[in-house]
């Protein structure tokens, strides 16, 4: 799928052996190759032409074509050199005589990385926190060992990420001053960092050793009962948990804070994909890749908005019992019908599993946000989907209200009088606008709401696609409105 008017990339991605960044790099690179007409060279469908003698008679013909190929081959190689880290270049470019060979070496390199091992190590690294029972030396050693294991598995953690995302982020609040100092000054080595933090530990708690000696052995840890918040979006969803006096948005198994609200079914086996994995294959499996179910859930098939959307979606939606919209897919060689609640349940289950992996604990309780203009039917259907996903849905909360709570928690410090706040929430499929008054204690009162449950980024995309289709038809006398691949799935 070509990327029209692809903007230049002033700072190329420097890909390392981190498998989670590989997917992003691959997407950007394929878009670049598509835009610059290099895809055939990379994929091997446009092989190197035979060497030709440069006679005057064939110079303007086949030889000129060969020269063009070599220029494009060099352009592809230049991109690979510019976007791969030096360490990865040494692995995949050594002995490679073409951009095609480098590309194959890259795919082979990442195919051999242990996905499960890397994901588990990254999950363990995110969980490491410094609490009062853990000495600083043990805390630092645990992080260092996990970073070493990740490097050995082929997914090294960048030094700055190790320092800021893991070491400093896992420290209690009383370490904030030294953390701020470290962020604004250069610490030359790991040993210097350890010495600095160990000294700070001694300053903050000089009686630690004596106290630990006289402390009775701790009782066996009890599994903590968590409640998560799920931002169920039309295009992307997020899951978060309240920890250490702040909201922590949890990364998924691809290392992203947002997860695509996509579900894909395979035609030949019983498996199905949810989230980013489903999104990444949508171009080659458009009819069985389901999205936008937030625009279907709790609605009737005869609703005008549903009838409008059905014309745009690449998957098939039919009228089911009781005027309920049903999505038709081919799964394991058989035609299957799914409701919007079924698909939403799969997305919510994915978000639950993401949180469980991060927290290392079973998660049952959840708050799910929906647009303020969702009616009772849409709210009930969303709650039913949550129950099907194994969740105890504590509350279905309006998205602007959730935003107001977060704003009040983060901004109320230092307020001497109430504030009037407008929440403008424009998502992939819905628009909510709310006016609220937030008190100095963080309580808020909704003054007015407005919005549209069928206005969002997807509608802007659809208008742009329709415009481009009409322009293409006018200029080239060809109608591509029925070509799903041409329209981007």
TrEMBL record:
GO terms for molecular function: ATP binding; ATP-dependent protein folding chaperone. PROSITE patterns: HSP70_1, HSP70_2. It holds the Pfam family HSP70. It comes from the Eukaryota. Keywords: ATP-binding, Nucleotide-binding, Stress response. PANTHER family: HEAT SHOCK PROTEIN 70KDA. This is Heat shock protein 70. It comes from Prunus dulcis (Almond).
């Amino acid at each position: 799928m070509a990327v029209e008017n692809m903007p230049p990339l002033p700072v190329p991605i420097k890909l390392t052996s981190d498998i989670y960044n590989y997917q992003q790099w691959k997407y950007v690179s394929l878009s670049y190759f598509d835009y610059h007409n290099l895809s055939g060279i990379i994929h091997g469908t446009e092989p190197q032409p035979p060497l030709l003698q440069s006679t005057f008679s064939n110079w303007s013909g086949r030889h000129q074509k060969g020269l063009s190929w070599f220029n494009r081959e060099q352009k592809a190689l230049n991109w690979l050199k510019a976007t791969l880290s030096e360490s990865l270049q040494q692995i995949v470019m050594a002995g490679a005589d073409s951009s095609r060979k480098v590309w194959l070496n890259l795919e082979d390199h990442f195919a051999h990385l242990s996905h499960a091992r890397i994901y588990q190590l990254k999950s363990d690294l995110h969980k490491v926190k410094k609490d009062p029972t853990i000495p600083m030396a043990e805390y630092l050693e645990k992080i260092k060992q996990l970073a070493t294991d990740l490097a050995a598995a082929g997914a090294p953690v960048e030094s700055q990420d190790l320092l800021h995302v893991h070491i400093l982020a896992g420290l209690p609040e009383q370490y904030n001053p030294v953390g701020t100092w470290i962020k604004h000054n250069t610490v030359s080595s790991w040993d210097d960092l350890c010495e600095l933090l160990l000294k700070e530990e001694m300053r903050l708690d000089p009686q630690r050793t004596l106290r630990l000696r006289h402390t009775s052995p701790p009782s066996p840890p009890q599994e903590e009962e968590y409640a998560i918040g799920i931002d169920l979006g039309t295009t992307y969803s997020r899951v978060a948990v309240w920890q250490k006096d702040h909201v922590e948005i949890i990364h998924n198994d691809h290392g992203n804070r947002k997860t695509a609200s996509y579900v894909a079914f395979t035609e030949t086996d019983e498996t199905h994909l949810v989230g980013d994995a489903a999104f990444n294959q949508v171009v080659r499996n458009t009819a069985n890749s389901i999205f936008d179910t937030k625009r279907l859930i709790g609605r009737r098939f005869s609703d005008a908005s549903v009838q409008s959307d059905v014309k745009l979606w690449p998957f098939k939606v039919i009228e089911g019992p009781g005027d309920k919209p049903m999505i038709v897919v081919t799964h394991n060689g058989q035609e299957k019908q799914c409701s919007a609640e079924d698909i939403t349940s799969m997305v919510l289950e994915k978000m639950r599993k993401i949180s469980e992996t991060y927290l290392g604990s079973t998660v049952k309780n959840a708050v799910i946000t929906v647009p303020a203009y969702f009616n009772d039917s849409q709210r009930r259907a969303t709650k039913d989907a949550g129950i099907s996903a194994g969740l105890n849905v504590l509350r279905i909360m309006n998205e602007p209200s959730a935003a107001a709570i977060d704003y009040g928690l983060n901004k109320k410090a230092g307020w001497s009088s109430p504030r009037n706040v407008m929440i403008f929430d424009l998502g992939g499929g819905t628009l909510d606008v709310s006016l609220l008054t937030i008190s100095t204690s963080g309580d808020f009162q909704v003054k007015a709401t407005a919005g549209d449950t069928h206005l969002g980024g997807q509608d802007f995309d659809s208008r742009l696609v329709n415009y481009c289709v009409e322009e293409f038809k006018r200029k080239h006398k060809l109608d591509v409105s029925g070509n799903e691949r041409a329209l981007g799935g």
